[in-house]
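Re: weekly structure request thread

Next one in the queue (597 aa):
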Amino acid sequence: MSTLPIGTYLQEKKYKIEAVLGQGGFGITYLATQEITHERIAIKEFFFKEYCERDESTHMVTVPTAGNRDVVKQFEKKFLKEARMIRQLHHEHIVRVFDVFQENCTSYYAMEYINGRPLSDYIASKGRLAEDEALPIIETVGSALSYLHRQSINHLDIKPANIMLDGADKRVVLIDFGVSKQYDPQSGEGTTTTPVGVSNGYSPLEQYNPGGVSSFSPQSDIYSLAATLLKMLTGQTPPSAIDVSQKGINIPDSVSPNIAQAISLAMQSVKDERPSSIASFLDIIHHGAEGETNITRLHNNPTSKNKKRSWLWLSLLIALIAGIALFFVLSGSHKKNRNAYDDDEETVYVDEDEDEFAEEATEEEEEEEDEDELVTKHYSKTVGDNVIDFEYPVKGNAILVQNIREWINEQLGDTYSGDLNDAEAFFQHYASKLGVNDDEEAADSMVEEYSIEQIKIDYMNDRLVTFTNDSYYYGGGAHGIGATLGVTFRKTDGKMFTHDMIARWYDLQPFVKKGMMKYFEVTTDEELAEYLMYDTNMYNIDNLPKPSSDPWITGEGVVFLYTPYEISYYAAGSPTFTIPYYQIKDALTAVGKSYFE
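Done, posted below.
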């Protein structure tokens, strides 16, 4: 199951999932209810269908194969940028985003629910639209695009499937900013990275270039808007920009001359020969172009003919490159299919090349990278023989940080019920339990009992982080109780490495027994049985039980620990041993292996 179950709550019961509206290659869109206001909204979840899996019991989203995690992470960042971009937009004909959040080890944004259908469905139901019905829609979308262009944003995916008709009044709403780009107002260069996407029939030729539309260009969206108008008036999807560059565009005689002229000019292969703004394009629709059109000049000017011929050769080259790229994309690389919330007019997402996909990070991206890095702060207090000393996460992946904090809270007694984001309050709560007066008399009085808790990062790499807790409690008498417990978290989603990830415990028995022998420094089964106080007539020394505590991962392998008195009736310490990964890997589940791959 890839979708969230109906009835699932998100954001601590703020939103309730009511239905699945659509699913594409990169995301799932749900109908939800805002519990306080009872309003219906749409929630879009990042779910890279090709690489992600969902745990049916916890709803957590994971990427089992380590080699795919960087790719998924890159696209999730782009998903969040799309959400942040739309959230900053305030226009009555652009879909509104209310909330952006992370949960279930993935990202979401909540947006207005449009109770209607996409323009593509409406066209299909009518065959084609009359000009007096089509033009108001184009003008409305044009007003939304003009608003975007004033902010140096290109939508780059204008087509009927991304234009919604909301309700009985057919309010026109522009959706889907998945390949949109924002550009620097001064330089015109892109300031955001997005997947490069093309919708055949609607995307202009420059969008097929490696890296897509590299500089701000209203003409790119104008081409798509004109192609959308042509689809509305004919019911036929326009030819691809590659075909247009070689064969031109054929507009039926049934289309009014001014509209035909506007479409012809707006769908020129050479970007600079299109109208320079939405206003210019709409003006040609209503009043026609003054003087000779570009098409007339191209047919009558020999120099222009040569330029056109040169451009066609260049177009053929671009077409070849694009064709190769599309072949690989369509035969299995990243692509996305959506309608209103899951369309049938495909936007093909062409992977950037290696340099483009890992292009230089903007300052914002660098900050996001830093936010994902786990950062801890050291806290320590000593009173007499009492010690509390721990590393507390203060920054990083939100779910990972929360899970680590909860584990540390449990290790220290699980008595703190305040805000885990408040590291200082957390520390003061447990430090106060040491009898913190800092005077020597108080410290000297603590001789009958004391405790030591030392929690630190024991091991970390790019996939996981392991914390250990050296704990000792002395209550008077002959000896105290001490053990080192550990826990390993997967960085991508904060999931703990547990016994459940060992599919075949019996396969590990030879290594478990060997580890126990090494711990007790014995060489025979009889000696080990004696240390464990095992009655070999009743128990099999070759079938030792699982420890009650979960194992953890270090650079040497997987560490197992039996807590005091767990496996022996006498204080035989805390038997601890490490099984190298190459010996344990075949006994692990696929999820367990993901911590190492």
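Residues 405 and 420 are 7 Å apart (CA to CA). The chain has a mean pLDDT of 81.
Next request, please.
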